[in-house]
Design goal:
EC number: 5.1.3.14
Family: Belongs to the UDP-N-acetylglucosamine 2-epimerase family.
CATH topology of the largest domain: Rossmann fold
Radius of gyration: 20 Å
Order of helices and strands: EHEHEHEHEHEHEHHEHEHEHEHEHEHHH
CATH architecture of the largest domain: 3-Layer(aba) Sandwich
Structural class: alpha/beta
Pfam family, one: Epimerase_2
Strand order of the largest sheet: 3-2-1-4-5-6-7
Helix content: 40-55%
Shape: globular
Largest sheet: 7 strands, parallel
Number of strands: 13
Enzyme class: isomerase
Strand content: 15-25%
CATH class of the largest domain: Alpha Beta
Keywords: Isomerase
Distance between the termini: 13 Å
Number of helices: 16
CATH superfamily of the largest domain: Glycogen Phosphorylase B
């Protein structure tokens, strides 16, 4: 029996780990433990509850005004002392590109525990965008023993870096999680209809999420200006729904600028609420990586509020369009999607390059073979 530790800290990691935890826990060949660092406390807990994930170790790491170097150092030390030295793990699973991923990989490497990197090989090829995530990914790839890539592009990126042992293309577990989540959400549909009865779903819904560091400041101001122009131009036919991130760099500006009757600023959405809202939307404007992967499975065109993305497969497949924080581009692409049905359908019906919901099983089978 192999002893596995799933180690993560943020909501996106939890979402993408959830179907894996379920898949491995249901197999008697694996002894599964779950540890969280709680980089996102409340948002993480919502996902743990939704997917019924039981946690064995909880570091609850965050402190007010914590710097990146403090967080990284604390994580390496506490992951080692409070988790890795307590049990003899065969594998540590990490997912994506967070500070938790890098610190977990370093800690596991120091203890000579094999690192399994989920969603490996994503690259923007700009070490400062996204920051520090791109560096986290590159360093983790050099420490990991197994690399589970969502697409062929990701695999090619690793091969270019001379990482070619135990590299597998399996799709992305985010699609597994989405399909699991939608089944749960369907059973409580009426709760969401009632909860969001202040939104006019007879209009076309534009769902916005924006929270990345590279959009802080002037770029975010430009994005807000674009949303104001869209809301004014389509005041009778479009409703903009924006769950506003709690970071003051986002929240303060959004609530100051985005004042219009057809712009609904709401609190950050729990995962079930988010996937329900995505399913009800017509267009999604986002700087989130996970949403770029999920939206195509729901047939929703995505305007990516970034100039570079490590998820170019969606752009190449025609499911996503890079618009950055360019006001004119955001407005013009939104206008095309709202007014040109053929253009809208060509994007909404494009094939999702990120998988079909069988990724977790493929990962398990690959590990069983090794």
């Amino acid at each position: 029996m192999k002893k596995i530790l799933f180690l993560f800290g943020t909501r996106p990691e939890a979402i993408k780990m959830a179907p894996l935890i379920q898949c491995f826990s249901n197999d008697e060949l694996f002894d599964v433990k779950v540890a969280v660092t709680a980089q996102h406390r409340e948002m993480l807990d919502q996902v743990l509850h939704f997917f019924n994930i039981n946690v064995d170790y909880d570091l609850n790491i965050m402190k007010p005004n914590q710097t990146l170097h403090q967080l990284t150092a604390d994580l390496i030390s506490r992951i080692t002392d409070e988790i890795l030295l307590k049990e003899n793990f065969d594998y540590v699973f990490v997912q994506g590109d967070t500070t938790t991923v890098l610190a977990s990989s370093i800690a596991a490497f120091y203890q000579k525990i094999k690192i399994v990197h989920i969603e490996a090989g994503l690259r923007s090829n700009d070490m400062h965008s996204p920051f520090p995530e791109e560096m986290n990914r590159v360093l983790t790839s050099n420490l990991a023993s197994f690399h589970f890539c969502p697409t062929e592009n990701s695999k090619e990126s690793l091969i270019k870096e001379n990482i070619n042992k135990n590299v597998f293309v399996v799709g992305n577990t985010v699609i597994d999680a989405l399909l699991l989540g939608l089944e749960k959400v369907k059973m409580i549909e009426n709760q969401f209809v009632e909860k969001y009865n202040f939104i006019d779903f007879s209009k076309k819904i534009l769902l916005v999420t924006c929270h990345r560091r590279e959009n802080f400041g002037e770029p975010f101001e430009d994005i807000c200006d674009a949303l104001l122009e869209i809301s004014s131009t389509y005041s009778e036919s479009v409703e903009i729904v924006y769950p506003v991130h709690l970071n003051p760099n986002v929240k303060d500006i959004a609530y100051k600028k985005l004042i219009a009757k057809n712009i609904k600023l709401i609190s950050p959405l729990d995962y079930p609420d988010l996937i329900w809202m995505m399913s009800k939307s017509n267009i999604i404007l986002t700087d989130s990586g996970g949403i770029q992967e999920e939206a195509p499975s729901l047939g929703k065109p995505v305007l990516v509020l970034r100039y570079v993305t490590e998820r170019m497969e969606g752009v190449d497949a025609g499911t996503a369009i890079l618009v950055g924080s360019d006001k004119e581009k955001i407005v013009s692409e939104t206008k095309k999607l709202l007014e040109n049905n053929d253009y809208y359908n060509s994007i909404s019906k494009a094939t999702n390059p990120y998988g079909d919901g069988t990724t977790s099983e493929k990962i398990k089978q690959a590990l069983l073979m090794h």
